[in-house]
Amino acid sequence: MTAVPTTPLVTPADIDAARDLLADVMHPTPMEFSQALSTLAGTQVHLKCENMGRAGSFKIRGAYNRMAGLTEEERARGVVAASAGNHAQGVALAAQLLGIEATVFMPNGASMPKLRATRGYGATVEQVGSTIDDCIERAREVEQETGAVFIPPFDHPAIVAGQGTCGLEILEQVPDVGTILVCLGGGGLLAGIATAVKAVRPDVKVIGVQAEEAAAWPDSLAAGHPVPVAKMTTMADGIAVGRPGDVPFDLVRDLVDGVETVGEDAIARAMLFLLERAKLVVEPAGAAAVAHLMNRSAEAGDEPAFDPDKPVVAVLSGGNIDTLLMLRIIRTGLGIAGRYLQFRVTVADRPGSLSGLLALLAQERANVLEVQHGRTTASLHVHQVQIGVTVETDGQEHSKRVVDCLTEHGYRPVLAD
């Protein structure tokens, strides 16, 4: 997948023009070297921190580029958009900067921080339905009713060109880059980066990464046209797109070297890794590229997963995450990494039973987080009690040592699912 499209809707010249337009709107986002990920991958790994850009994601690039091209008459009619969060904030900020009225439709259940941020940039926010499709349908209705211009999240040449400016920055910040990993939803960011990069460095591998539970691209590429996915159940709402965009599709098909998928556990593990080792807050969609990198590194064993002579850049597409969701993901990530061990044991209901159990856990240096007593389980005898314990460990090996120690001392720990 490296041939140049015969009639591309987006050209390198379009991306250069978008770069000039955005020069006074945003600075290039940081590029951070990660020693921890480099060790895992067997080559230098750099993180393109779109999560640290204006409005917390790459979306301002495309939204501003599209909206700056509106005529005065179109600007006077205002704009309308549909989004779960990142595109909403990008459109709202661009509208504020350009003096355009914006109405954004967001689904019921959208995170409060994203709702507040979108309103904070001056947009009118209305919540409709439970999915982005519901919001898009309503936005299109308002477009017909009022004449407001619909600003799509990815399916427009100016949007793709704006997102492509991220690719130009990558080439400037890591000139010898060998592989670029990009999260993939509708395809605007991946198509833009691939167009920008391949025009200058056709040897660079550009790989898209989707969430397994919202992976419309593999079937679409196999079919040769966009194919809707039947259902989506991913926490990565930023890339939970039911159908690839028509505009990005040809560019992705012709320029991108591969599309990979990652599971929910891998995304949670990557988010935790970025938080602990890179000190970066990244939303689930933004961690997809790192999740793939970590998966490949784990699968490769002693062999490097990427060319050791050519750096890898993983694009962190956004950092707009609800704090409560972050807490849940941290707990999930710790569990996946084996650092939360949950088990229950049945002991005699007499003084000293709990203290004996806790003494063993202290001996093994397992930090007790929670203890629960249960005396009403039908399987218990009258003089028995069930104790549920959650402990913090250093990882899978430490957890195994704890379980082995309890077993050796006569307990029969039943691990939680």
Automatic annotation (TrEMBL):
Claim: Nucleotide-binding is one of the keywords in the record: no
Gene3D superfamilies: 3.40.50.1100
Keywords noted in UniProt: Lyase, Pyridoxal phosphate
Ranges of residues in domain ACT: 342-417
Cofactor: pyridoxal 5'-phosphate
Regions that span the bilayer: none
InterPro entries: ACT_dom, ACT_ThrD-II-like, Ser/Thr_Dehydratase, Thr_deHydtase_catblc, TrpB-like_PALP, TrpB-like_PALP_sf
GO MF, one example: threonine deaminase activity
Keyword Membrane in record: no
EC number: 4.3.1.19
Highest taxon listed in the record's lineage: Bacteria
Family, as annotated: Belongs to the serine/threonine dehydratase family.
Protein name: threonine ammonia-lyase
Organism: Ornithinimicrobium faecis
Gene behind the chain: ilvA
